[in-house]
Amino acid sequence: MAPTARARARQAVLSELTDVAGRHLAEVGPVALSVRAVARDLGMPSSGVYRYVASRDELLTLVIVDAYDRLAREVEEAVGRSDDGRAAVLAGVHAVRRWAHDHPHHYALLYGTPVPGYVAPETTIEPASRLYAALIRPLEGIEPIEAVVVAPTLVADVVAVADQLQLDISPESVTVALELWATMFGMLSIELFGHLRSTIGDLDTWFTDGMARAVDRFAFPEPK
Amino acid sequence: MAPTARARARQAVLSELTDVAGRHLAEVGPVALSVRAVARDLGMPSSGVYRYVASRDELLTLVIVDAYDRLAREVEEAVGRSDDGRAAVLAGVHAVRRWAHDHPHHYALLYGTPVPGYVAPETTIEPASRLYAALIRPLEGIEPIEAVVVAPTLVADVVAVADQLQLDISPESVTVALELWATMFGMLSIELFGHLRSTIGDLDTWFTDGMARAVDRFAFPEPK
DNA sequence: TGTACATCAGTGAACGCGCGTTCACTGATGTAC
DNA sequence: TGTACATCAGTGAACGCGCGTTCACTGATGTAC
To answer: What residues of chain A lie within 8 A of the CB of B169, using their CB?
Structure first.
């Protein structure tokens, strides 16, 4: 049964709402995102938005899910473009950085301080995991160079990560990958949020070299 | 010339103001910190606060500087308690983590997403650097194990870090130290801000082991 | 195919809220002669 | 030491702001017979 005109209209408005909210967020940040302002931009009374969304929080959720999707898509593409594992991981982290630079408020929304009062619903878990899946996939069958001992209390959790993403990656590799992500998010937060002030000028190289060293903890085969 | 009674009273109120503002911040976070609420708690009309502070931003600055000082003091103590370099660095990062856990909103204020609209004045630079000085001091005379090539565009900045803190540390060590900090802030943000959701249960061990591996990039002499 | 009723997107007014900041004032403290 | 003036901490009322959300409404779209 084809969707009715009303249903199609509803979908169209909903996606326009998501778009406009995303554009507002990019300008004013998550905290200042306002139902009224978005409604104004849609040419609608603020009460109209409540036909599509039960609250401001739900509007935020719309933007969050959309942002996770867009980021994941970019990273998946970047990773997929390379068949050399090491290059693929690096392409992935650089894609994350590029997206973060292009959409700093969105980056902050996903990976910065939580928005006060907002509790992310279950809906946001799955789209969030797509990024991690993309970043870790090239590590299938790859082991760390160093000897890594995974603590007994961590093994199960770390195995669960690989299982959930349906990837064949050792606990040791997952452990090192998590540390790589921490370093990546740390470097990005430092440069985007302006901690460390202006001590490092050439942030491109700083990130590139740092990530290269982080990736070189893995024993990738020589690229052919 | 002894300070007048008025001057002493002013100091007392100013420090009480800082205290109360800090306590409010710990509860509601930086964004929701309100001049009126703090004033109420001080038993003062909101206009009274403006005798001490020109704006809400200046109130935030008061809290920020105070927080940097307190954090730095804790870390300095933790680092100073050990004369083994490796143990000292680890004591430092664990002190940071403990403080972050005890004061998550303060941590967010200093190292999370910037508060929208707030621009940190010059005054906050110096207290911020105390933490870095404490964390890096134990690395004097220590080199990384791995071969580290510091990119030409980064050398000057990295040397400046050591110079400014008046410490005798090689560019290579500063570079690796910066990556260690990035990893630390990354891990802390991940666990405090709840990204990665509940994939890792035993966060204590996760942080401890991750930081140990990060520190082991340095060739510390065997402790006697 | 045509009619009667049900659904629901969009309207416009209103509620109640707390905020940052300004201003003219008062009375106590400090300073200069 | 005593007096006259200047400073300035604390007061209370007011300004103007934008916000999230509710509610009773209208008219167009959809559904069942």
So the answer is: none
